Amino acid sequence: MNITGTLFPYRETAIVFSLIVLFGFQFGCSSTQTQQDDTPSLHEAYEDAFLIGTALNRAQILSATPEALRDTLRTDRRGYFMEQQIFPDPKGLKVGLKHFNVITPENVMKWEEIHPEPGVYDFEAADRLVEIAEANDKKIVAHTLVWHNQTPDWVFEDEEGNELSREALLERMRDHIHTIVGRYKGKIMGYDVVNEAFNTDGSFRESKWYNIIGEDFIAKAFEYAHEADPDAQLYYNDYHMENPEKRAGIHEHLEKMIADGVPIHGVGSQSHFSINNMPDYEQIGKSITEFSDLGIDVMITELDLNVLPASVYQFDRNNRQDIYKDGLPEEVQQKLTEVYSDLFEIYLDHSDILTRVTFWGVSDDGSWLNYLPFEQTNYPLLFDRNKDPKPAFDALIELANNQ
Length: 403
Ligand code: XIL
Description:
By secondary structure, the protein is of the alpha/beta class. It has a domain at 35-53 and 88-102 and 152-311 and 320-401: Glycosidases (TIM Barrel), CATH 3.20.20. The protein contains 16 helices and 9 strands. The protein has helices spanning 3-7, 11-23, 42-45, 58-61, 66-74, 81-85, 90-99, 111-114, 124-136, 166-183, 208-213, 217-228, 244-259, 281-292, 330-349, 391-401; strands at residues 51-56, 102-105, 139-146, 190-195, 233-238, 266-269, 272-274, 297-306, 354-359. It has an 8-stranded parallel beta barrel with strand order 1-2-3-4-5-6-8-9, surrounded by 6 helices. Helix 14 links the parallel strand 7 and strand 8. Helix 15 (330-349) runs parallel beside helix 16 (391-401). It starts with a helix and ends with a helix. Residues 82, 106-107, 195, 270, 302, 368 line the site of (3S,4R)-3-hydroxy-2-oxopiperidin-4-yl beta-D-xylopyranoside. (3S,4R)-3-hydroxy-2-oxopiperidin-4-yl beta-D-xylopyranoside binds next to loops.
């Protein structure tokens, strides 16, 4: 699909419209709100249980000011496919700020976006995120410092394209971490320091980080982050924590790191689930309690619920059926509501040890599940494409109120 082609004719209208919307909006939105919104706030409903977070995308972060909006219109970089399609998204930002008290940048602090070339950093969106958080009394959990994905190839190579030595890669990692964590010292509550370092069977993922540095790349990343901001909370983040084998491998390694005095304060379980293929609920509970036994915080960091049946993903890429493009069938909506309720019952049962539940996005239109692994209309979040609360949202409010 040619996004640029379809978007450009409407650009001018979009700018004018957005500037009107943004005129009284700027950073803090509640004081200038004109329309009455009686929807209860999700994070307020869960105030006594845990923090409730969301991931904000570039379209939302840069919606906060007309200047930034103009800058976004000039941006045309790799990986911005979805964020351009939905941008600008001031309404998404507004809903995000109402219902969530912790924000995580979905992409803008990943290596390829914040540090795209050697020696070149692009802090604009991250700076803006910090301003939004400060103006609206939100905490930030930044994502992510060291990962195998969305990290340019040059990171692992010298100027001639040869693979770096362990020492040189450690030095590059330290420089990246110090530059970012140092810049936001005292402004960012926590970091997903290392993301997805393990395989499903609990062994180390053979990433370039692991292959070049060895297994202590994880500990080193935490040490560097701690040097740069001794007060920041430092987390290890991964998916499939419900799988006992994977969990055991991670648990063992974190236990070793803690025994060695490595500064780690929490572990994040991504929780990208599918309503048609949920993990065993008992294992979800176990993953919370077992990690908590290490004496560190446990959090749900990227919650969303894919509604598409597995069969959709088995189609040939060129012959797919976008089965819910005209809307979500009522029974699927109900199933989504039930699964969200089931999960939050588990989370609430563990609210003494679970510190945060973060959703991977605000509303269905912005979700990555619409474009990965390929374009497909999905409905994984609590707010619909108009940013209105879905039945799952109401169910979660009711659950919290019945506590
Ligand atoms: C995803 C983003 O949502 C997409 O916009 C991007 O194109 C790919 O990455 N696990 C993670 C997140 O830790 O960083 C991923 O985010 C989703 C899976």
